[in-house]
Amino acid sequence: MARRPMMAANWKMNKLVREAEEYMARLLPRVEDSAEEVDVGVFAPFTCLKEVARMAETSRVIAGAQNFYPEDSGAYTGEVSAPMLKDVGAEAVIVGHSERRELFCETDGLVARKTARAIDSGLLPVVCVGETKEERDAGEMWDKVSGQVREVLERLGDISGGELVFAYEPIWAIGTGDVASPEDAQDAIGRIRELIAGIKGREAADAVRILYGGSIKPDNIEDIMAQPDVDGGLVGGASLEVDSFVALVEAAR
Ligand SMILES: O=C(CO)COP(=O)(O)O
């Protein structure tokens, strides 16, 4: 089954509202054609998400958030819920980015809860998994990644409609310029797909998209996208400029 490619911009904690508007005004006309064939996602900070979603509404570009809390409302000071994201027009959300796991102590269990809640709320979760340099050097890459993926899958029902997206983001490759080799990306992502097949069945494994993330740039994307199990990219630094993000979107077609 042919999976629709996805190229997603994770702005992280960058861009004021005015900068987000300028970016979207330049991006939208330039990805109009590509968005027929590629899911183009822009994952913005909460403060400019409403503007990003409003501008994306008349296009095929998907507006997403970078995090949320898996309760609908209540005494959770500082948090934002799935209904709130939907209220401002978001269609997707990043879950369990390594920066949230490391800096904000998000556990595999919380990430799994968030993933299930996002799906139930009608948001497309992009669930991040990946190992540290120390874990890779110790030969523990698959222990780490498979544990993260398994905990999420065990929480979910049928996913043969492609209800979620995984992003394999080795932590040593994030923001370092040290991109994974196409073979390493394929190895981890191919194994994640087989794990999905083992737990959820072949149809689910064929439907769920798995992205690579970590130092993606216009000059390394083609070799990574050429790998059979890689369905696209989750991009930090190179997504902040319209020109380089457009080049990545075009490479995903
Ligand atoms: O963390 C990432 C995307 O979520 C990757 O960041 P960089 O593309 O800046 O390495």
TrEMBL record:
<dbReference type="InterPro" id="IPR035990">
    <property type="entry name" value="TIM_sf"/>
</dbReference>
<protein>
    <recommendedName>
        <fullName>Triosephosphate isomerase</fullName>
        <ecNumber>5.3.1.1</ecNumber>
    </recommendedName>
</protein>
<dbReference type="GO" id="GO:0006096">
    <property type="term" value="P:glycolytic process"/>
</dbReference>
<feature type="active site" description="Proton acceptor">
    <location>
        <position position="169"/>
    </location>
</feature>
<keyword id="KW-0324">Glycolysis</keyword>
<comment type="pathway">
    <text>Carbohydrate biosynthesis; gluconeogenesis.</text>
</comment>
<dbReference type="GO" id="GO:0005829">
    <property type="term" value="C:cytosol"/>
</dbReference>
<keyword id="KW-0963">Cytoplasm</keyword>
<dbReference type="Pfam" id="PF00121">
    <property type="entry name" value="TIM"/>
</dbReference>
<keyword id="KW-0312">Gluconeogenesis</keyword>
<dbReference type="GO" id="GO:0004807">
    <property type="term" value="F:triose-phosphate isomerase activity"/>
</dbReference>
<feature type="binding site">
    <location>
        <begin position="10"/>
        <end position="12"/>
    </location>
    <ligand>
        <name>substrate</name>
    </ligand>
</feature>
<keyword id="KW-0413">Isomerase</keyword>
<feature type="binding site">
    <location>
        <position position="215"/>
    </location>
    <ligand>
        <name>substrate</name>
    </ligand>
</feature>
<feature type="binding site">
    <location>
        <begin position="236"/>
        <end position="237"/>
    </location>
    <ligand>
        <name>substrate</name>
    </ligand>
</feature>
<feature type="active site" description="Electrophile">
    <location>
        <position position="97"/>
    </location>
</feature>
<comment type="pathway">
    <text>Carbohydrate degradation; glycolysis; D-glyceraldehyde 3-phosphate from glycerone phosphate: step 1/1.</text>
</comment>
<dbReference type="InterPro" id="IPR020861">
    <property type="entry name" value="Triosephosphate_isomerase_AS"/>
</dbReference>
<comment type="subunit">
    <text>Homodimer.</text>
</comment>
<feature type="binding site">
    <location>
        <position position="175"/>
    </location>
    <ligand>
        <name>substrate</name>
    </ligand>
</feature>
<dbReference type="InterPro" id="IPR022896">
    <property type="entry name" value="TrioseP_Isoase_bac/euk"/>
</dbReference>
<comment type="function">
    <text>Involved in the gluconeogenesis. Catalyzes stereospecifically the conversion of dihydroxyacetone phosphate (DHAP) to D-glyceraldehyde-3-phosphate (G3P).</text>
</comment>
<dbReference type="GO" id="GO:0006094">
    <property type="term" value="P:gluconeogenesis"/>
</dbReference>
<dbReference type="GO" id="GO:0046166">
    <property type="term" value="P:glyceraldehyde-3-phosphate biosynthetic process"/>
</dbReference>
<dbReference type="InterPro" id="IPR013785">
    <property type="entry name" value="Aldolase_TIM"/>
</dbReference>
<dbReference type="InterPro" id="IPR000652">
    <property type="entry name" value="Triosephosphate_isomerase"/>
</dbReference>
<dbReference type="GO" id="GO:0019563">
    <property type="term" value="P:glycerol catabolic process"/>
</dbReference>
<comment type="similarity">
    <text>Belongs to the triosephosphate isomerase family.</text>
</comment>
